[in-house]
Specification:
mainly alpha; elongated
C-alpha cells in the first residue's frame, strides 16, 4: 500500500516540475514560484530516496 502513495507523490511532483520548467522556458516575468517549486520537489525527492534506502537496509538486516 505504501508503494502506491510513493508512486502518486512522484507523479504529482513530476507534473508540477514540468509545469514549472515550462514557465521558466517560455520566460514568465516572476520566476520565484517556479524555482521554489523545483527546490521543494528536489527536497522531497531526496527524502523519498533516503527513505527508500533506509527501508532497503532494514529489510536486508532482517534477512
Amino acid at each position: 500500500m505504501k508503494t502506491i502513495y510513493v508512486i502518486i507523490i512522484v507523479v504529482v511532483l513530476l507534473l508540477l516540475d514540468w509545469a514549472a520548467i515550462h514557465d521558466i522556458i517560455i520566460g514568465e516575468e516572476n520566476l520565484v514560484a517556479e524555482y521554489g517549486m523545483l527546490g521543494v520537489s528536489l527536497i522531497i525527492f531526496a527524502l523519498l530516496i533516503s527513505w527508500g534506502i533506509k527501508m532497503k537496509r532494514q529489510k536486508k538486516s532482517e534477512s
